[in-house]
Design a protein that fits this description.
By secondary structure, the chain is an alpha+beta fold. The protein has a domain of about 190 residues: Beta-lactamase, CATH 3.40.710.10. It is built from twelve helices and ten strands. A six-stranded mixed beta sheet has the order 1-3-2-10-9-8, with helices on both faces. Helix 3 runs parallel beside helix 7, helix 3 crosses helix 8 and helix 6 crosses helix 7.
């Protein structure tokens, strides 16, 4: 569990921390980004929780607040993986079973040997680009069966394109990062649980963990709290990105909620006095089970993926010496990063939407970690 506490309690030098926070403030003033959200906790004590800049790029936009909501983009995949693992712990999903045992339509075009674990760690042999080509030609032209109450039309149509996609390689032969296949995991959760993906993640992940402001389908009442709302909508041109519960990339959260989630991962699945996920399950999620595979063209060489979490030093373009090689977490295309550092008993979430200009993650996290040298 997270709590507020004093810097003295965790041995952090106030002046050194203020220097780091001044750096974030200066990045915004210099126009490197219009806003930053960040939270860091050590031993469950929050010692840095800040918001900088404005909600949108316009100068008249309101100031960003520490409880502002932002798009997680691909960090959403970690929630989707947790949803699968919750059902795995209950004996309802076998990670070594073919996906088509749960979704018979998936078996087309030689996909019978793709197992659930292959989808989790991006070793299915499927390529997003191949599915995109089918979608470009067939979007809006596919005859769809009646929509089930627990299903979303956009995902239903997307699944049809995935079913028609042929694998580029056999499973467990190459690492190919694939977002579409996490739509398949969302459908797997829906079919096995009997609930919509949004309902399942709310009832089985976010509510038990006390993540009050985290959603896949963000309620209308919370839309005004979304920072970089324009960017979020532009990122999802085929739907309202604020309310489509897409398993690969459509979750929204706050830095505080993500701190809660990171603390659960840090404590090997414990949340307060309750075991939310078993330690063995956390190990499966964070441990490298794809690093032995050759990487598809264009994949960063350091990328190593467990079940929904990156590990080793993929999170940094060049690993700073001060950052432990035990760190794991995930990143999102919105400029978000969740990192968990068991060696320093630290969790953090950092969001910097204009991250294409500079790579601020390494700088910020390296400096924060150095506080405990």
């Amino acid at each position: 569990m997270l709590k507020d506490g004093s810097l003295d309690e965790i041995g952090v030098d106030k002046n050194r921390l203020l220097e780091i926070e001044k750096l974030l403030e200066n990045w915004v003033k210099a126009g490197e980004t219009h806003t930053i959200l960040s939270l860091v906790a050590h031993n469950g004590v929050i010692f840095h929780h800040k918001a900088y800049g404005r909600m949108e790029k316009e100068a008249k936009s309101p100031k960003t607040k520490v409880n502002s909501i932002f798009a997680l983009v691909s960090i959403s995949k970690t929630f989707t993986a947790v949803a699968v693992m919750r059902l795995y712990e209950k004996g309802k999903i076998d990670l070594k079973s073919p996906v088509c045992e749960y979704i018979p339509e998936f078996s087309k075009h030689g996909k019978e040997k793709i197992l659930v674990r292959h989808v989790l760690n991006h070793s299915s042999g499927m390529r997003d680009g191949d599915t995109n080509k089918i979608a470009d030609n067939q979007w809006g032209k596919v005859d769809l069966p009646p929509l089930e109450e627990s299903m979303v039309r956009l995902d239903q149509e997307g699944l049809q394109f995935i079913y028609e996609t042929k694998p580029d390689s056999a499973p467990d032969k190459v690492f190919i990062y694939n977002s579409y296949m996490y739509v398949v995991l969302g459908e797997l959760v829906r079919r096995v649980s009997g609930k919509s993906f949004d309902d399942f993640t709310r009832s089985q992940i976010f509510k038990p963990l006390g993540m009050k402001d985290t959603y896949f389908a963000l309620p209308q009442a919370l839309h005004d709290r979304v920072a970089d709302r324009v960017g979020a909508k532009e990122g999802f041109p085929l739907a309202d990105g604020l309310s489509h519960p897409g398993p690969p990339c459509c979750a929204f959260s706050t830095t505080y909620d993500m701190g809660i989630f990171g603390q659960m991962l840090l404590q090997n699945g414990m949340h307060g006095s309750k075991q939310f996920l078993k330690p063995e399950t956390i190990a499966l999620m964070k441990n490298d089970n794809s690093g032995h595979l050759p990487k598809a063209e264009g994949t960063p060489p350091l990328i190593n993926y467990g079940y929904g979490l990156f590990n080793t030093n993929y999170l940094w373009e060049k690993s700073p010496e001060s950052i432990s090689n035990k760190v794991f977490g995930n990143t999102g295309g919105s400029g978000s990063i969740l990192w968990v550092d068991p060696e320093n008993q630290m969790v953090g979430i950092f969001w910097f939407p204009e991250h294409e200009k500079i790579r601020p993650w390494e700088i910020f996290i390296s400096k924060i970690t150095s506080l405990f040298d």
